[in-house]
Write a structure and sequence with these properties.
The complex is a heterodimer. By secondary structure, chain A is α+β, with helices and mostly antiparallel strands. Chain A has 14 helices and 26 strands. Chain A has helices at residues 98-105, 223-228, 247-257, 272-281, 309-327, 340-353, 367-375, 407-413, 424-428, 450-473, 480-497, 511-526, 534-552, 559-573, and strands at 6-14, 17-22, 30-35, 41-50, 53-58, 70-77, 79-82, 90-91, 123-128, 135-136, 141-147, 150-155, 164-169, 173-176, 180-185, 190-194, 197-200, 210-212, 236-240, 262-268, 298-303, 332-338, 379-382, 388-397, 418-419, 441-442. In chain A, strands 8, 18, 19, 20, 21, 22, 23, 24, 25 and 26 form a ten-stranded mixed β-sheet that branches. A six-stranded antiparallel barrel of chain A has the order 1-2-5-4-3-6. The mean pLDDT of chain A is 95. By secondary structure, chain B is of the alpha/beta class. Chain B contains twelve helices and 23 strands. Chain B has helices at residues 129-132, 153-163, 178-190, 214-228, 240-253, 267-275, 303-311, 333-340, 344-366, 373-390, 398-412, 422-428, and strands at 4-5, 8-12, 15-19, 28-33, 36-46, 49-54, 66-69, 75-77, 86-88, 104-106, 123-124, 137-138, 142-147, 168-176, 197-203, 232-238, 258-260, 263-264, 279-280, 286-294, 314-319, 322-323, 329-330. In chain B, helix 2 (153-163) runs parallel beside helix 3 (178-190) and helix 10 packs antiparallel against helix 11. Chain B is elongated. Chain B starts with a strand and ends in a 6-residue tail after the last helix. Classes of the chains: A alpha+beta, B alpha/beta.
Chain lengths: 576, 434
């Protein structure tokens, strides 16, 4: 046992929960290590203290642990390292770099093996910003290093209270992250500043001036989102849906095409294979906004379903802390969490082992407040220097049985500003993305004029009513005018709401294109047609749909685009 | 010689509690009673109290039965000698062969480091259009057949296994009916596949807890052959619902708070720990998992199929002897279907979309509404689709099935009615019809 650390002995093992009789003192949420007979050190976190016994959740499998095994307490809360070199990384839920673990341990994960999150050797081109005599507060810039296309700010550690005067500053140069780049004093003590700081993941970083109202749309290039159910930079939204409805495909599309600076992919308790797609493809996919590769703006936190469940719980916090860190540099960050339900289930497993009084579906009674405080970490903020940074959170939700009445969906709905409901029926009918246009909602601003969107929504609603009516009176009992309303609503669906994620062109629809195409769509909706009968109406709309789809598949402002548009106009004109 | 304990202080369900020292979590023990000897596994430690789940069940165990700890977790031999052998749910020989002691490996080992995974790349051809076109199976996929009692799910499982080009098969049976066990054996034999198969068979007559080990045994063997011998291994697990029910039973005995219909809150993690063993190694072999999940009450929202669907890479939904287009899914199809043929994806999506419309037309028809011209077309299409694409007796290569798809569309529709983009129509629409 190392110096200063306090100790204890295992008294019980129940799944990943270990009870420890401790000798001196413990702190809630501090990190502890269980030392097995084979001298493996199993990282753990204190989650309850009763009398002289602490319950700790172990971030590893507990096979082989015995009553009487030693436990070491560290006094440190579960924390992450923050500094240059986070981008492009693939971490597990505890911020271990997975590729490095693979180099050391081979095909399989190895229990008790932990590696520094950030490279200790790599040198960064440091430029000092703060000068000796400057007074700084937590989050103020001490210096900068270039990290890819970003100017990575080295900031006065977020944990330092009050004002600090710079007493010494290192010259510009190329240094590894552990180099002392400045010293500062608060009048009582002098401390050293390096390029890396740590922060406890379960506590939000709040070194900013104020929170602002999220208003600016975050362009996802998904038509149904940006036009109909938009998302704001600094907002929070969720995508609940039963399995197979398209949550992950949608998140992957967002991770590639969203117009933000940084994307953090939190693969939380779902399939490892899905992360691999990102991991293997992003290094080769170009980010058209920067000309660099997508991986250069991405961090992947990967604690998939077969990895330890306690680390899964931590992974959500690790992810959002990294997001907040880059926000502090004045960047817009998008955090994609797939799936928050797996995080909630991890909480449920822990709560069950603690034998707490369960709430609905055995989730802990405090589930709702944990969900709320997670989404509350999204936000647009004004930084100390007057600039702005944002964290936008998108949480996939996987409701049991696809039923939105369950606790996690319900808790989430209360705290998000946009709700994209994925529907089994739409997925079955291959109407992708399967976001339900009548069940979803958003409180954020659209790219497209609100009144125009309202018009289209009203048409969708009216079409749905006709459809319902037709189920009662049949097509023959439906007036042609109503039938045309129905066809128009179907038209919106097939040429605008549906979008082919796997097509090179159709997968992205930028803001300008959306506005342009939407106007064309609107001209179809506003047009009054005179069809002799329903068959003619149906045929007409099928042909028009064909031309519109061809248009969608043509690159923006290309020749094919203009030709396809001309064909649509021609067809509309013929029905004058 | 390890110490023998005689003081069993609690017997509840299939879990016994004994006072003992120096026992490790997950360790194995032998419990000897008048009924014989059974393996048991430590599932919880509380000071000096050790909780053991007894694989043969607790029936006949008395308070003074003998408990001897083995000082090791459950293991299985990793060796070529496994091939052609049949074992029980606890890993002992079910055939007449010797028990194997060579190169013993812990079962239920850690998961593959995601950084070592690669994107799956090889299609597994089955000859079934519902799979090959619409729900393409891919090497390293984990995929269950969702079905109900009475459906030919084991036949479908065996058929895919026999048609798939893999190096070897590991069959894990849980609560398998003896007839089904014999059926698998005969089918494997008649295809000359027995000698490249390893079986772990827990039958309906065996103690229920014993089936808990089957997936871990089967997958540990699969991992051995995939990593050490670079084999493409196909693992068949039938029926995973029995495995889940055994988990439920233990959880209830341990007085865990159930999350949903009596199933433990960690059902998802338990299933994921097994299914996630499916993998393709860049420089070694692969593991593909095909399973059967019977749905209690034919209810896909039941916790077992529901949790399974959230974990696996799709499912084949077997209803009335056919793989249903709705509900069936292969999440890996897009990894391979861009390389098969240019029309594959478009045909796959649009044929299903039209089939969905056909279903609506059928509903209207059943309510007595007049069928419009469009409805008539859909009705014709739906009947052809079911006959040519869904019938399990169809056995044709993918390319032929795609051609048949275009033929079917052309027999029923105008090109614009299909929603397929123009350049594909130009290339593939049958010439005599266009
Ligand atoms: N936008 C889409 N376009 C085409 N296919 C899709 C789309 N979204 C989902 N799918 C299909 O559905 C499958 C399941 O989608 P996925 O996102 O993995 O579902 P979930 O995460 O909700 O369980 C995918 O593998 C794909 O085959
Ligand atoms: Mg998913």
């Amino acid at each position: 046992m190392s110096e200063n650390s306090l100790g204890g002995k295992v008294t019980g093992v129940n799944g990943n929960m270990v009870s420890v009789a401790f000798t001196d003192r413990v702190t809630q949420n501090e990190v502890a290590y269980v030392i097995t007979g084979n001298k493996e050190r199993l990282k753990s976190e204190v989650i309850r203290v009763r009398g002289r016994e602490a319950d700790i959740q172990v971030f590893e499998s507990t096979g082989g642990v015995k009553v009487g095994d030693d436990v070491e307490f560290t006094g440190q809360m579960l924390s992450v390292e923050l500094g240059p070199g986070l981008l492009q990384q693939v971490y597990d839920g505890l911020q271990n770099p997975l590729p490095e673990l693979a180099r050391q341990a081979g095909y399989f994960l190895k229990r008790g093996l932990y590696v520094y999150p950030l490279d200790r050797e790599k040198a960064w081109d440091y430029t000092p910003v703060a000068k000796v005599g400057d007074t700084l507060r937590a989050g103020d810039t001490v210096g900068t290093v270039p990290e890819g296309i970003f100017t990575h700010r080295i900031m006065l550690p977020f944990a330092w209270n009050g004002e600090w005067k710079i007493t010494w500053a290192k010259d510009a140069g190329s240094y590894p992250i552990t180099t002392v780049v400045a010293k500062a004093s608060n009048g009582v003590e002098e401390r050293e500043i390096t390029m890396v700081q740590t922060w406890p993941v379960k506590i939000p970083i709040t070194s900013y001036r104020e929170r602002l109202m999220p208003r600016e749309p975050l362009v996802t290039q998904v038509r149904i989102i940006d036009t109909f159910f938009p998302v704001a930079k600094g907002g929070a939204f969720c995508t609940p849906g039963p399995f197979g409805a398209g949550k992950t495909v949608l998140q992957h599309s967002l991770s590639q095409h969203s117009e933000v600076d940084i994307v953090i992919v939190a693969a939380c308790g779902e399939r490892a294979g899905e992360v691999v797609e990102i991991l293997r493809e992003f290094p080769h996919l170009e980010d058209p906004r920067t000309g660099r590769n997508l991986i250069d703006r991405t961090i992947i936190i990967c604690n998939t379903s077969s990895m330890p469940v306690a680390a899964r719980e931590a992974s959500i916090y690790t992810s959002v802390t990294l997001a907040e860190y880059y926000r502090q540099m004045g960047l817009s960050v998008l955090l994609l969490a797939d799936s928050t339900s797996r995080w909630a289930q991890a909480l449920r497993e822990v709560s069950g082992r603690l034998e707490e009084i369960p709430g609905e579906e055995a989730f802990p009674a405090y589930l709702e407040s944990l969900v709320a405080s997670f989404y509350e970490r999204a936000g647009l903020v004004r930084l100390n220097d007057g600039g702005q940074g944002s964290v936008t959170i998108c949480g996939a939700v996987s409701p049991a049985g696809g039923n939105f009445e369950e606790p996690v969906t319900q808790a989430t709905l209360k705290v998000v500003g946009s709700f994209l409901a994925l529907s089994r029926d739409r997925a079955n009918a291959r109407r992708y993305p399967a976001i339900h246009p009548l069940e979803s909602w958003s409180k954020y601003n659209s790219l497209v004029d609100k009144n125009k969107v309202q018009e289209a929504k009203a048409m969708l609603q009216a079409g749905n009513e006709v459809d319902q009516m037709m189920k009662v009176v049949g097509e023959e009992g439906t007036p042609t005018a109503d039938f045309v309303t129905y066809l128009k609503s179907e038209f919106i669906d097939s040429v605008y709401l549906q979008q082919n994620t796997f097509d090179k062109v159709d997968s992205t629809c930028g803001a300008k294109r959306q506005e342009y195409v939407f106007d064309k769509l609107l001209s179809v909706l506003r047009k009054s047609f005179n069809f002799p009968g329903k068959n003619e109406a149906r045929t007409y709309f099928q042909r028009l749909r064909q031309r519109f789809l061809d248009w969608n598949y043509a690159a923006w402002e290309s020749e094919a685009f203009q030709e396809a548009e001309a064909k649509i106009d021609e067809m509309l004109a013929s029905q004058a | 010689m390890r110490k023998i304990y005689h003081r069993i202080i609690q017997i509840s369900g299939n879990v016994i509690t004994v006072e003992a020292e120096n026992v490790a979590n997950g360790e194995l023990a032998e419990v000897k009673s008048d009924r014989g000897t059974s393996l048991a596994q430590v599932i919880r430690l509380d000071k000096s109290r050790v909780f053991l789940q007894v694989f043969a069940g607790s029936r006949g165990i008395s308070t003074d039965s003998e408990v001897r700890f083995l000082g090791r977790p459950m293991r299985v031999s990793g060796s070529e000698a496994l091939l052609g052998r049949i074992f029980t749910g606890n890993g002992s020989p079910r055939d007449k062969g010797p028990s194997l002691e060579e190169n013993m490996l812990d079962i239920g080992g850690p998961s593959v480091n995601p950084a070592n995974r690669i994107i799956p790349r090889n299609m597994i051809r089955t000859g079934l259009p519902m799979i090959d076109i619409f729900n393409t199976l891919v090497e390293s996929q984990k995929l269950p057949i969702f079905s109900v009692a009475g459906e030919p799910y084991n036949e479908l499982l065996a058929r895919i296994a026999m048609q798939a080009e893999v190096d070897m098969i590991v069959l894990g049976g849980m609560g398998l009916k003896h007839d089904d066990y014999l059926y698998f054996k005969e089918t494997l034999d008649s295809h000359g596949a027995l000698s490249r198969t390893v079986m772990f068979i827990h039958t309906a007559a065996d103690p229920i807890v014993e089936c808990l080990l089957v997936p871990d045994l089967a997958l540990a063997v699969a991992e051995y052959f995939a990593t050490e011998k670079s084999k493409r291994v196909l693992v068949l697990l039938t029926d995973m619902t029995n495995f889940c029910d055994a988990l439920k039973e233990i959880a209830i005995t341990m007085e865990q708070i159930p999350s949903n219909r009596g199933y433990p809150g960690d059902l998802y993690s338990q299933l994921a720990a097994r299914y996630e063993k499916a993998v393709d190694f860049e420089t070694a072999g692969s593991i593909t998992i095909l399973a059967v999940t019977t749905m209690p009450g034919d209810d896909v929202t039941h916790p077992v199929p529901d949790n399974t669907g959230y974990i696996t890479e799709g499912q084949f939904y077997l209803v009335n002897g056919r793989i249903e287009p709705f509900g069936s899914l292969s999440r890996l199809k897009q990894q391979v279907n861009s390389e098969t043929r240019a029309d594959h994806r478009a045909l796959m999506d649009n044929m299903i979309r039209l089939y969905a419309e056909f279903k609506e037309a059928v509903e209207k028809q059943s309510m007595g509404f007049r069928m419009s011209d469009w409805d008539q077309k859909l009705l014709k299409y739906g009947a052809l689709f079911e006959k040519r694409m869904m019938d399990l007796s169809v056995n044709i290569p993918l390319e032929e099935a795609l051609d048949l798809g275009w033929k079917t569309l052309a027999e029923c529709f105008e090109p614009a009615e299909t929603g397929i983009k123009t350049d594909l129509v130009k290339q593939f629409w049958p010439k005599d019809k266009a």
